[in-house]
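TASK: fixed-backbone design
INPUT:
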C-alpha cells in the first residue's frame, strides 16, 4: 500500500469542528480549500433555499432582498488576503488561558471573489443616522451564560463596512465557496482578525447604535491585566518559521531558514533573524515588491549552522511602524499573540 506524503489538518475540536492548517508544510502563496483552517463556534448550519437570498435592512433608504443569481452577475471584486483567527498561537500564552489551544496554523491565505458591500449599499442607500453594519450568520447555538440559542453575529463600523475591499464573497481560489467555509455567502474583512469575516451570511442590518451581541461585547474583546477592555479588530504584526521545525536535528553547515510574516491593514517591511535575541540581521523578503497589504510575505535566510543547540528568533516589522514585541500582551481570552517567534534546533 502506498503511503501518502501529504500533510493533514490538525484537529483542535470535533464538535464544533476546529482544525488547523498545516502551515509549516505548505509553501504556496495560496492555501487550497482542503487545507484552509476551520473555526466554528457552533455546528454547521443546514443549507436551504433561504440561504441563497441576502436581505439588507435597517437604516437604509430602500430595504432589498438580493438573490444569489443577482449578486454573482454584478461587477466582481477579487482580493488576495490572509485570514487569521484571533486565537492563533493561543497555546503559547503563559500563564495559559482557556479556549481552543491553537498553535500556529489558524491562518490561511487565498484569493476571494465577490462583490464589494459598498456596491450593494449604493443600491439600498444608507440612511443619514446609520453607524454600524451588523452581519448575522446562519450558524447558531448556545453560548455560555445564555439560555437560548443565538446566531453568530458581528458588526463593523460603517467606515470599515463601506471600504471597497470589504466584500461579500462567493468564490475562493476560483471556485465556489465550500460548505465548510461559508457557502453560499461570507463576509471578507481584510486586515481584521477572522471573527469579523462572518460565514453563511443570513442578513445584513444597518443600525443607528452600537451593536451589543455577545460575540462583540464579551468574546473578541481584549481583557489585559493592566488596562481597560477594548475590542479585537486589526491583525497584529506577526511571523512564523516554517523551516527548520521546532526541535529539529539538522546537519552542520549552510542551512535554509524560511517562513512567512504578516500584518493587518499594512505590509511587512522587514524580517530580522537572531541567534541570541540581541543581535539581529536582515532576512531576505521574497516575491513581489508592490503593495502586499493584508497579504503575507515569504522570507528566507541562509545560516552557516555550527554544531550545538541553538535558538532561532524571528521578528517582523510593518509599514505602520509596528514590530513584534519580546513578550505578548497577556489577556484572559488569549487573543492577538504576536511575540517574537522562536524555535530550538540541534546541529550535528
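OUTPUT:
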Amino acid at each position: 500500500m502506498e503511503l501518502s506524503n501529504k500533510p493533514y489538518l490538525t484537529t483542535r475540536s470535533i464538535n464544533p469542528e476546529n482544525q488547523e492548517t498545516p502551515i509549516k508544510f505548505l509553501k504556496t502563496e495560496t492555501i487550497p480549500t482542503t487545507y484552509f483552517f476551520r473555526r466554528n463556534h457552533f455546528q454547521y448550519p443546514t443549507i436551504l433555499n433561504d440561504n441563497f437570498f441576502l436581505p439588507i435592512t435597517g437604516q437604509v433608504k430602500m430595504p432589498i432582498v438580493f438573490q444569489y443569481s443577482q449578486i454573482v452577475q454584478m461587477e466582481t471584486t477579487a482580493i488576495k488576503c490572509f485570514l487569521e483567527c484571533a486565537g492563533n498561537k493561543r497555546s503559547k500564552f503563559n500563564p495559559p488561558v482557556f479556549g481552543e489551544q491553537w498553535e500556529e496554523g489558524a491562518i490561511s491565505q487565498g484569493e476571494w471573489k465577490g462583490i464589494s458591500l459598498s456596491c450593494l449599499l449604493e443600491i439600498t442607500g444608507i440612511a443619514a443616522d446609520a453607524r454600524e453594519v451588523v452581519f448575522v450568520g446562519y450558524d447558531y447555538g448556545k453560548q455560555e451564560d445564555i439560555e437560548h440559542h443565538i446566531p453568530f453575529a458581528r458588526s463593523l463600523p460603517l467606515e470599515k463596512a463601506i471600504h471597497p475591499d470589504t466584500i461579500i464573497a462567493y468564490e475562493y481560489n476560483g471556485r465556489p465557496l465550500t460548505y465548510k467555509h461559508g457557502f453560499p455567502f461570507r463576509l471578507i474583512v481584510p486586515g481584521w482578525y477572522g471573527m469579523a469575516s462572518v460565514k453563511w451570511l443570513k442578513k445584513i442590518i444597518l443600525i443607528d447604535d452600537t451593536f451589543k451581541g455577545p460575540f462583540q461585547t464579551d468574546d473578541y474583546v481584549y481583557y489585559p491585566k493592566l488596562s481597560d477592555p477594548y475590542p479585537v479588530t486589526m491583525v497584529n504584526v506577526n511571523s512564523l518559521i516554517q523551516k527548520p521545525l521546532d526541535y529539529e536535528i539538522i546537519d552542520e553547515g549552510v542551512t535554509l531558514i524560511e517562513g512567512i510574516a504578516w500584518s493587518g491593514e499594512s505590509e511587512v517591511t522587514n524580517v530580522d533573524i537572531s541567534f541570541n535575541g540581541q543581535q539581529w540581521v536582515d532576512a531576505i523578503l521574497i516575491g513581489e515588491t508592490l503593495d502586499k497589504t493584508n497579504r503575507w510575505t515569504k522570507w528566507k535566510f541562509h545560516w552557516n549552522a555550527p554544531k550545538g543547540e541553538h535558538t532561532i528568533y524571528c521578528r517582523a516589522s510593518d509599514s505602520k511602524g509596528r514590530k513584534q514585541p519580546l513578550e505578548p500582551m497577556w489577556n484572559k481570552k488569549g487573543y492577538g499573540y504576536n511575540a517574537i517567534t522562536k524555535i530550538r534546533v540541534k546541529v550535528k
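COMMENT: The helical segments are 68-71, 117-124, 158-161, 214-217.
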